[in-house]
Structure formats: structure tokens, C-alpha cells
Amino acid sequence: MIRNYFKIAFRNITGTIGYSMLNILGLATGMAVALLIGLWVYNQYSYDKFLPDYAQLYRVQRNFNSNGDTLTFQSTSLRLADALRNQVPEIEYVAESDWMGSHGLMVGDKKLFIQGGQIGGDFLKMFQFPLLSGNANTVFQDAYSIVLTQSTATALFGKENPINKMVRFDNENDLKVTGILKDLPSNSSFNFNFIVPFSYVAQKDPAIKAQYTGSFGMNGYQTFVKLKPGISYAQVAPKIRLITHVETGSLNAKNSYVTFQPLQRWHLYSNYVNGKDTAGFLEYVNMFTIIGTLVLLIACINFVNLTTARSEKRAKEVGVRKAIGSLQKDLIIQFLSESFLLTLIAFVFSMVFVQMTLPAFNALTGGKIGIPFSNAFFWLLMFGCVLLTSIIAGSKPAFYLSSFQPVQVLKGTMHPGKTRSVSRKILVVLQFSCSIALIISTVIIYQQIQYAKNRPSGYDMNRLIQSAMNNDLDKNFTALKNELIQKGIVESITTSTTPATDVSWHSDIDQWPGKNAGETVEMGTVFVSEDYFKTMGMAMKEGRNFTNIYDTTSVIFNEAAISRLQIKNPVSQSITYGKKQYKIAGIVKDALMISPFSSADPMMFYCYPTRQNIMLYRLSPNIKTQDAIVQLTSVFNKYSPAYPYKYSFVDENYAAKFKLEVLIGKLSGIFAMLAIFISCLGLFGLAAYVAEQRTKEIGIRKILGASVLQIWTLLSKDFIVLVLISCVIASPVAFYFLNNWLLKYNYRINIGAGVFILSGLMAIIITIVTISFQAIKVAKSNPVKTLRTE
Amino acid sequence: MLKITGLEKIYRTEDIETMALNRLSMEVKEGEFVAIMGPSGCGKSTLLNIIGLLDDPDAGSFQFNSIEVAHFNERKRADLRKRNIGFVFQSFNLIDELTVYENVELPLLYLGIPATERKQRVEEVLEKVQIMHRKNHFPQQLSGGQQQRCAVARAVVNKPKLILADEPTGNLDSSNGNEVMQLLTELNDGGTTVVMVTHSEHDARYAHRIIRLLDGQVVMENVLS
Ligand SMILES: Nc1ncnc2c1ncn2[C@@H]1O[C@H](COP(=O)(O)OP(=O)(O)O)[C@@H](O)[C@H]1O
Ligand SMILES: [Mg+2]
């Protein structure tokens, strides 16, 4: 019997290939979108979970009470790391770590400048990234050792075995390769190419080593912990919370309390509100889960509408089968197996679509996802999804078709197409409401990005370049500067502790005029050298710039700092920072170094021209960029031979701040387009069906003198009304969600009526174009011909 | 075999009520060949549909083999139908997507008959109605007469006790019509009860008895020799 069902299903599919293709194409597109999003969502949830014992791994955070607000920082002190290690028996391991910046690795004439970490010796026992050679217990026994990932090792040593070979590190010391790690998977929160034991840092720099016994307020590093097996965070939480309060001298320590964030939550729960890790990236994951489901639903609606619209054709079959003795149950099974077959075909197509679009999708999202062909669970899941989709899409037509009464059908007194048109209309409205809501979202996201992009950043990014400093550049900076300016390559050059597009260090200011007792303010803190403001193109608002590199008792605040600290007549007043007194030399205008979406941070700038992290320089106006890069490479190689010349354009770094928003905008744009496309496929099919049904009526109307335009209006009017209703439904829903989304940006647009009008107009134009194919074809047909076929 | 007493069927639409069957009574004995005649709209098809358990009456009694079936539910009716009754329609009502063979096989599939027996029985009746050579054709590829013979084959393949035919020759020319009537007569000779609606006095003469209807009531019965 099942064979008979499939046979008739197959012949139905091939017999009306046009409708079937519409149906399959729509469903396949919907399934492809859902599958793509599903793979992506799965990938997001899989972050870090490949690590053994991932549930016992945490990072240490400091919740800092800043005048009523709880701010969460992951920067911690080395003293805290030691306190956790020695005072909390539930903790198995602690690993302190730097922030994993770029370092120079040199072997012979091979030079790399890549990201890596300097990290506590127990790290690999906690985060058990697989070692291809070396032993996690012993790789960091010696401070002068380094563990490379496989691709780093290949880049430095080629085919040679790197174990026990030496790597020149930052052109300071030779470190012995003690282990090779498998390259980190793309769904890892860590992203390093090598690791060096933290003991190396401590041994090299006594000042850093001293921090283990220094203050809890010197928060320069991150700390990771692993709890002992069977220990839950709840058991540890009370012991660590106030662990820093023993240090009465430090306001920072007294105003902080310590918590851990589990590794499982790092990736998705990155947004802290009053010390709690609320959703963060999870919001986007959820948003796309909803979008994927909606697009699939839209495709299912197509299926329902196209199938029920064609039911007149199937009615006779139902009548005959019932007359012969079939029960409604049998027919339901028959129609469900038919929809299963169709869904299965659509699934095959969707797999092809996904396989074809994955490279582009990965390029867009920067991920590395693929279809797990060899995973049996995946196929089981897919089978389940196909079954579920075929039931969702097929059950309505199945119950509807199978309910036909044979007497009516066989007598021909039944017009199934008409009785269902109301619920079909509701479904069309549902479809278009979803599609229009997606269009509105896309437009608003783009408006918000554009709005933030056009916001004045407060500094001049044009032709401004940043490079990381290193020991050699530090030593030879003056010579390098002179040569670059003399040769006319750059017009201005400076150094700073933070890049132009970030503020990597915040610290407390101790005293300022008008300070309330017990008040603490964490401020963005930047140490700069000569010509910093000139090179950055930041304008002074009041007072003066630093006079020269020896102007070490002056501080320059930005406007935000003055209004935060509420200093009246600031210029020439005194403040205390790090137990030293400074005079306020001037006030510089605010610059958006952190986020283009929020207001500028309060900032303080000090002149302190040794050991800085970033070199900033602006190209001369009359040199071509390509020529400049060639010349810069040769000058940099001259003064820093151990490091490859690396640079980035500040405007590109700034643009990267919009990455997430641009990605979200692009994805919602693509999905909106696909949703509209699928809806239009359905509309196209429905219009064809209506046209077919009304051929006779239209023929008579034409004989009676109706024009093509009148016929077109007759056929299009109903659909356009439906789309208008959808606009009315979609607008408030989209407004509600996007208004909520915008709230997370300090600097945001106001949603205007224009977006809704524009999106509605777009939807209506697309609808008109879609239906007109059918409407015009019918309207232009020769009435004599169409009437004869009746 | 069939005993109908005081059968009523009323169709209600928005503005009018039609009394399609008006306290109709009749009887059909096992092995009989009965023709039902009457002007268009007098309730012939309605009656046939009720006899065929495709529709239920509003009032009255209908006994099928001495069992009251007037108020059977859909499940019981379907079961009774597929075991006992075969249908032949004026417009053939073959399933366009199935071949001749598959159309005829369908009732046996619903009865759950094993494949080998199915094949044998389908071929047997196709042989009998002489369209074996067309068994792999689709209905549209056949002439009207061939389609109706196929429909008859489908009606008898499950060896029903009763065949109901609603104007079986209405869409056929006279020679094709005669072939179909011949078939029905042969089946009747083999013991199957036949109830046929027809407009044609010529076709009605194949029957043993003619029941004439007017406005949903029996107005006359003729027994033919
Ligand atoms: N589904 C229906 N709805 C309303 N009236 C119907 C329906 N079916 C039949 N009728 C009416 O019932 C009467 C009998 O119909 P029918 O049994 O088809 O007549 P016949 O087959 O003798 O031509 C007619 O007047 C017809 O219009
Ligand atoms: Mg009739």
C-alpha cells in the first residue's frame, strides 16, 4: 500500500512539475536557511565544550563597585592568583596569563609576529588542548620554554622536528620548544599560536614578580582556575568573594568582590549588567534561531497553500478512494507520505544549497562550519527534522483533502478551492508579516550602522597607521623617527601605551579637586610621547599640549573626564595619581577610541616616553600609500631586524568595530531577501491558481469589454490588500524588537515612520511584480480560446 | 438483500430545502438486476449513494443483509463498502495518476490482499473485460468504452455482492454502451446483485425489474420477463 502511495505521489510531483518545482524550491530554500542557521547556532553552543572537564574551568572576575554601579572586569592581580592558589583548597589549578598580544618569533631568517600567550605553567593541565608532542605536566618546567601550535611550528621549522630547538623570542631570549599543540579549533574562545610560561615573564622582570606580593589593586592580568573534581562553584563562591578585602590600604581591593565565570558561559554570556553575566552574544544566537524558524515556517506555509489550492484536482481521487473503501485515516497517511516525499526531495536540494553557500557564509561570519556528513547523530536529527517539517507542512493539506465527502466530489457539487480561501489568506498574511518585519529590521540595522559611522570620531583616521612596538623599536625610536620624517614618508609620528582604536588600560585616580570621601573613578589611562595629539589629530579645547618628552608632571584630561570628575576651572589645578602629583596642563576634545556607539570614556594622558606598546604615524600627504609601505618596510627592517614589519590602518581598525553590527545587518538582509523570495514563490503559485480558476470568468469579462488593466486590477487587488494588512501587523512588532535592540547603544537613531513606509512599499512592489506575471498573462489571453476549453 | 423503508433525504441550502427522497421504500433481492429510472433531479443518484453507504439518510431504515446500517459510522460504512459493494460511475472516476492495472488493484490493496493473489485477480478481471493489453496505460490514453470497462473491472475485482452503477453508459456511444451492459449482465448471471440508474429504456431492458421514481418517491415498478 505504501508503495502505491509513493507511486501516486511521485506521479503527482512529476505530472505537475511547475507547481512541484515551486513547492520544492520554496521548501528547499527554507530548509537551507534553517539548516545553515542551525549549523551556525550549534557551532556557537559548541564553543569550548570540546575541552575535557570544561565544566570545572572558570575565569576570575572582579566586580568593582563604582559609585553605585557594579562594573565587571576580567583584569586581576597576580596577588589574587596566588591567594586563590594558596588559600582555597577546592581549587585544583590556577593559571595567570597576559592578554595574549603579538610577539616576535625568530628562527634563522624566519620571522613571525603573531598572537600568543604568556601563561601559568598549569594551563595545559586545565585547558587540555591536545599536545601532539610533549607532556602537559612537564612542558613548562623550565621558564625558558615555548609550546607552539602545529602551524606555527611548520611556519618556523618547516618539516624539521622542532622539539628541543630554540626560538628567539622578542629578540631578547632563546626559548626551547618543549611541546607542539594541535591547532586550536575555530570554536575555541582561546586564539593563540604559541604559549610561553608566565614564569618566563616573572623571571625576566622583577617588577612583575613583585606584583605577586604587591597590591590586589594592580590588576594587569587575567586568571583562570580549575575546580577539583566534584566541587561546584557554589561551594567556592563564598570563600573567594571577599578574598581581596584583607588589604585595607587599597580602595580598589576594598571596593571589589571576586567571582568566577564558567568556561561554558564565556562565549555566549559576555554582557555584564550589575555583576551578572546576562545574555550578550546569546541574543544574536537566539535572534537567528527565531529567524531560521520563521523562514522555515514561511516555506511550510507555501507548501500548505500550494497544496490546498490544487486540491480540486485531487478531490476526485479522494472521492474514488473513499468509495472503494478507504478510510480518512488511510488518506491522511497517503497525503502525509506524499508530503514526506516532497520534503525529502526538498531536503536533498537544501543540502546542495547549503554545501554551495557554506564557503560564502563562512567568509561572511568568519567561522569554519561544515556539514558533519560522517556524524550519524546529524543524519538522525536531519531525518527527524524532515519528518517534522513534512508533518507541519503536510498535515493541514492531509486533513483537509482527506475530509472531502465522496458524494459531493463525485457529483461535482464541491468547490474545494473556494471554501479554504479565508484560511489561505490568513497564512499569506502571516508569511508576509514575517518577511516585512525582516525587511524593516534590515533597514533599521543599516540606518544605525550608518548613523554611527557618520559620527565624528574626534580624531583624524585618514592615512594614520599603527604598528606594535618591540624592544628594538623602543631603543631605536628616535633614529627611526628622524629618518622617516627626513625622507618625507611620514608627517608626524608618536608612541602610546594604547592603540588609537582602543583604551587598553583603566586605572584609579587618587585625588582631584572636589573629590568626595571614598569616591573612586576608574579612568582610561594612556601614556604617550611627544606629538601624540598632533599625530592623532585631536584638538585641544583648553590649556596647552605637553611641551616635550620631559613634561612628566603634567596631565591632560579629556572633556568626559572633566565632566565626570566635576572639576571647575581645571587648567593648572593639581591631582594625584599613583601617589604622584600632576598639574592639569590642558583639556583635549573627546575621541571615540573604544566604541562608536557609546559616549567617550573619561581619559587621562601622561607623558611617559619609555616602553610603549604602539607606534602611531601619519603618512605625508604627497606620498602614494604603496610607495610609503615599501619605504616603511625597509626603514623598519633596518631598525628592528628581528621582527617582520607589521602595520594596520587606523580607519580599517575603526571600521572593524562595526563588524558584529555589519554582520548582523548583512545576515538579516540576506534572510529577509530569502524570506521574501520564498513568500513570492508561494504568491506566484497562488496567483497562477487563481488565474487558472477564473479563466472562464475572465474570458467572459473580456468579451464584455474589460481592458487588460481592469483584469489586472481584478486579479491583483486581493493580494495587494493582504500585503497591506501584513505591513500593518509587521510594523509594530518590528518596532518593538528593534527599539529594544537599539537600547543597548548609547548613540542610536530614533526609528522614524519612513522605514515602515519604505519597507511596506518595497513589499508591495515585489508583490505586484510577482502577481503581474500571471495577471498579465491571463489578461492578455484570447477569450475565445479560453472559453472553448471549458 | 436490501430493504429500504420510509427513507428521507433533505438537502438544505441557504434559501431552499430540497426533499431529494420522500419516504421512499423498496426492496432488492439477492441476485436481482434492478434498473432505477426517472427524470433528472428525481433522487436517483441520492438513493444510489445511500445504498452505496456513501451518504446517510435523514430518516427511515436501510437494512443491508438484514442489518440496520442507516446510522453506521464512517468506519463501519467504509468496512462494509469495501467488502461488499462495487461502484461504476457515469464519468468513470478513474484515478488519472494510476495506470489501468493500478486502478483495478486499488480495492485489493485496501482489503490487504497479498501481492501474488492480487496480481492473479487483477489479471483475471482485466482479461474478462478485455483490456489486458492496455493494463499499463493511463486512463487518458484510453477510449471512453475502455475506461468504463476498466471502471467495471475495478468495481468487481474484490468480488462484491452488490454492484451499483450510476448511468454507466451515459458517456458512451451505443456499441461501447452495449459492451458494458453485456458485462453487467454476465456479472449478474454469476450471482452478483446489480442496481443500475439509467435514462435509457434500452439499457433498462437488461434488468429483471424497473423501479421508476418521481420527486423522491417510487411511482411504478415493472417486472420484465
Ligand atoms: N449536495 C446537494 N445539495 C443540494 N441539493 C442537492 C444536492 N444533491 C442533490 N440535490 C438535489 O436533490 C435532488 C435529487 O438529486 P439527484 O439525486 O442527484 O437526482 P438525479 O440523480 O435523479 O438526477 C435534486 O433536486 C438536486 O438538485
Ligand atoms: Mg444523477
TrEMBL record, chain A:
InterPro entries: ABC3_permease_C, MacB_PCD, Macrolide_Exporter_MacB
Pfam families per record: FtsX, MacB_PCD
Sorted UniProt keywords: Cell membrane, Membrane, Transmembrane, Transmembrane helix
Primary subcellular site in the record, as a coarse category: membrane
Residues spanning the membrane: 21-42, 284-306, 331-356, 376-394, 426-446, 667-691, 719-739, 751-773
GO MF entries: transmembrane transporter activity
Chain ranges of the MacB-like periplasmic core domain: 20-241, 435-628
Gene Ontology cellular-component annotations: plasma membrane
Positions of the ABC3 transporter permease C-terminal domain: 290-392, 670-783
Signal peptide per UniProt: none
Localization in the cell: Cell membrane
Membrane topology category: Multi-pass membrane protein
Protein name per Swiss-Prot or TrEMBL: MacB-like core domain-containing protein
Record organism: Pseudarcicella hirudinis
From TrEMBL, chain B:
Molecular function terms from GO: ATP binding; ATP hydrolysis activity; transmembrane transporter activity
Keyword Transport in record: yes
One GO cellular component term noted in the UniProt record for this chain: plasma membrane
UniProt-listed CDD domains: ABC_MJ0796_LolCDE_FtsE (cd03255)
Entry keyword annotation includes Transport: yes
InterPro entries, per the entry: AAA+_ATPase (IPR003593), ABC_transporter-like_ATP-bd (IPR003439), ABC_transpr_LolD-like (IPR015854), MacB-like_ATP-bd (IPR017911), P-loop_NTPase (IPR027417)
Keyword terms of this UniProt record: ATP-binding, Nucleotide-binding, Transport
Domain ABC transporter: from-to ranges: 5-225
Domain of life: Bacteria
Signal peptide: none
PANTHER family attached to this UniProt entry: ABC TRANSPORTER ATP-BINDING PROTEIN YTRE, IMPORT ATP-BINDING PROTEIN
Family: Belongs to the ABC transporter superfamily. Macrolide exporter (TC 3.A.1.122) family.
Protein name: Putative ABC transport system ATP-binding protein
